[in-house]
Design goal:
The chain is an alpha+beta fold. Among the domains are: about 10-80, no CATH class; about 85-210, 2-Layer Sandwich (Tetrahydropterin Synthase, Chain A), CATH 3.30.479. The protein is built from nine helices and nine strands. The chain has helices at about 5-20, 25-40, 110-115, 135-140, 145-160, 165-170, 175-190, 215-285, 285-300; strands spanning about 40-45, 50-55, 60-65, 65-70, 75-80, 85-90, 115, 120-135, 195-210. Strands 6, 7, 8 and 9 form a four-stranded antiparallel sheet that branches. Helix 5 (about 145-160) crosses helix 7. The longest helix has about 70 residues, at about 215-285. The radius of gyration is 57 Å and the shape is rod-shaped.
Length: about 325
């Protein structure tokens, strides 16, 4: 039987074995250890990323872009998160263009696009949501599937606000307002649920009635357009006739008012004139009477073609005067 070796003998045997190993082998081992240490200690973060560092699974810090050092051999774990990238989610379409393949995308995307409006009409609504990761810690640790949560929130909010408008408003005048309301409400819910996501914009791509009801819907729109055209023609005729009639009425009224005012002013003037004459007549009746006579004769005599002046004191009376070319007999005065 072999006797057990003491410690010194064991050490001597190890020394002999180590002396038999080539000298370059330890150097290779050291280089390998240094390379493994460097690869597990140094990490790089891109310009559009941040690094979320975990130590034994617990979050400790967030690092920016560039080269950084961490504890090796799995003690520290770094997860890069693209915080500057704009992600895109389309709704109401089969194709998912967000750049990520996810199993929760519905294979019946057209069903998610069918929505009920406030006036109980059905619309096929397609829209796109652009967003980015603004809080990488919440994105990684507070929510299990943040992108799925964003899709669910977007569909719920869009259905809610589409139900507050009529079909005509969603199709025409309220599209921009609807997008703004959905964007604000989505951001509130994403913040409430700590998803770490921020909505950049919400935009309606296409809003149409379902294919099955498009013919009836088009007929309704054509009827509405004809109604609007008829109303516009009626207003055009109204605007041509009524303003003209109003203008003529105002002109007639103005003319009548001017005529009445002229008559009233003339009557007042004549009254004042008569009162002034009466006042002077009362002062000297004979002189005023004579003046009236002279004024009257001054108006009458210029209109008379032939004038005969006879002295009232003459005693000889000519009974017959043949003074006209037509040999008309005229009485000059007195008895025949």
């Amino acid at each position: 039987m072999n006797q057990p070796k003491n410690l010194e003998e064991v050490i001597q045997e190890w020394k002999k074995q180590l002396s038999a190993i080539p000298k370059f082998v330890p150097v290779l081992i050291i280089v390998f250890l240094l390379a493994a240490l460097s690869t597990t200690c140094i990490y790089s973060i891109g310009p559009d990323e941040v690094g979320v560092v975990q130590r034994f699974g617990r979050y400790i810090k967030t690092t920016g872009s560039g080269l950084h050092v961490k504890l090796p051999f799995g003690v520290d774990k770094v997860t890069p998160v693209k915080t500057q990238r704009i992600y895109k989610e389309k709704f109401g379409e089969r194709n998912n263009n967000s750049g990520r393949r996810r199993s929760y995308v519905s294979t019946r995307a057209e069903d998610s696009a069918l929505m009920l409006t406030g006036d109980l009409n059905v619309l096929d609504v397609k829209w796109v949501v652009q967003f980015r990761i603004n809080d990488p810690v919440k994105y990684l640790f507070d929510t299990r599937k943040p992108f799925k949560n964003l899709r669910d929130i977007s569909e719920v909010v869009m259905r809610r606000y589409v139900g507050n408008y009529t079909v005509d408003e969603v199709l025409t005048t309220k599209r921009e307002e609807l997008s703004i309301l959905v964007e604000h409400r989505m951001q509130e819910l994403l913040r409430k649920y700590n998803t770490g996501l921020r909505v950049v914009t919400v935009k309606l791509l296409d809003v149409n009635p379902p294919d099955k009801v498009k013919p009836a819907f088009n007929e309704v729109n054509e009827a509405k357009q004809e109604k609007e055209q008829t109303i516009n023609k009626a207003w055009e005729a109204y605007n041509k006739v009524i303003p003209r009639a109003k203008g003529e009425a105002k002109r007639t009224i103005s003319f009548a008012e001017g005529y009445a005012l002229d008559k009233i002013n003339r009557a007042k003037g004549n009254t004042q004139r008569f009162l002034s004459v009466l006042k002077e007549y009362n002062k000297a009746p004979k002189i005023t009477k004579k003046r009236f006579y002279l004024d009257t004769m001054a108006e009458v005599l210029p209109e008379v073609k032939q004038k005969y002046i006879i002295d009232k004191n003459a005693r000889t009376v000519l009974p017959l005067l043949n003074l006209n070319r037509d040999n008309k007999l005229l009485q000059t005065g007195g008895n025949k």
